[in-house]
Amino acid sequence: EDQVTQSPEALRLQEGESSSLNCSYTVSGLRGLFWYRQDPGKGPEFLFTLYSAGEEKEKERLKATLTKKESFLHITAPKPEDSATYLCAVQAGVKAGTALIFGKGTTLSVSS
Amino acid sequence: NAGVTQTPKFRILKIGQSMTLQCTQDMNHNYMYWYRQDPGMGLKLIYYSVGAGITDKGEVPNGYNVSRSTTEDFPLRLELAAPSQTSVYFCASRASSGNTIYFGEGSWLTVV
């Protein structure tokens, strides 16, 4: 069964304190691994897609990496505006119209 | 740039009532999806469509119905609402030629 597990469930950081969020997955025929950001009361906002092990992508203070079993979202010197829930999802094979299978998310709080 | 638009934003239903959540996208995307998001549970796929006239069940379809008469619209129908359908509902879409799935802002539904 295709599955996505995110850890930790919640993370509190001080402004400037770098850390990483983990996403481990088991999936048959990975087409892509996605990271989304979700603010309270909003829909998920696309951040990155990673397609193969060893791939990395960056956007401002965020950097996503991918191995054969997990992905990391590294947050460097976070700011309070980085506070949000970060969702990891996989797209597997051709099942269900290549819909995304989501983890439960990591809620990040950054205090100044 | 409207993207994926959902209406209504908020709705309170009584047990046994029926309603339709509207979703429309202006990006000419063939693939459309309905997810529900419950606290601490991640997003679960309800129904999906790979094009006008074609729909199929996702992971949690019971109690819902969909139709896809046009490329733009993908309404979700709730028949005989139950408290278990209290949730946040997200509509999403993607292009046939791409992998990125774009989400609407969500519809908050409470069944009492």
Can you walk me through this structure?
The complex is a heterodimer of chains A (112) and B (112). In chain A, strands 2, 4, 5, 9, 10 and 11 form a six-stranded mixed sheet that branches. A five-stranded antiparallel sheet of chain A has the order 1-3-8-7-6, with no helix packed on it. With 112 residues, chain A is mainly β. The relative contact order of chain A is 0.33. Chain A has strands at 3-7, 10-14, 19-26, 30-38, 45-50, 56-59, 62-66, 70-75, 84-92, 100-102, 106-111. Chain A has no helices and eleven strands. Chain B is mostly beta strands and 112 residues long. Chain B has no helices and eleven strands. In chain B, the strands form two sheets. In chain B, strands 2, 4, 5, 6, 9, 10 and 11 form a seven-stranded mixed sheet that branches. A four-stranded antiparallel sheet of chain B has the order 1-3-8-7, with no helix packed on it. In chain B, β9 (87-94) and β10 form a beta hairpin. The N and C termini of chain B lie far apart (35 Å). The A-B interface holds A 4, 9, 31-32, 34, 36, 41-46, 49, 87, 89, 91, 96-105 and B 4, 31, 33, 35, 40-45, 48-50, 56, 58-59, 90, 94, 99-106.
List the helices and strands and how they pair.
The complex is a heterodimer of chains A (112) and B (112).
Chain A lengths: L2 E5 L2 E5 L4 E8 L3 E9 L6 E6 L5 E4 L2 E5 L3 E6 L8 E9 L7 E3 L3 E6 L1
Parallel strand pairs in A: 2-11
Antiparallel strand pairs in A: 1-3, 3-8, 4-5, 4-9, 6-7, 7-8, 9-10, 9-11
Chain B lengths: L3 E4 L2 E4 L5 E7 L5 E8 L3 E10 L2 E4 L6 E3 L9 E3 L8 E8 L7 E2 L3 E5 L1
Parallel strand pairs in B: 2-11
Antiparallel strand pairs in B: 1-3, 3-8, 4-5, 4-9, 5-6, 7-8, 9-10, 9-11
Descriptive tags:
heterodimer, A: mainly beta, five-stranded antiparallel beta sheet, 0% helix, B: 112 residues, mainly beta, seven-stranded mixed beta sheet, four-stranded antiparallel beta sheet
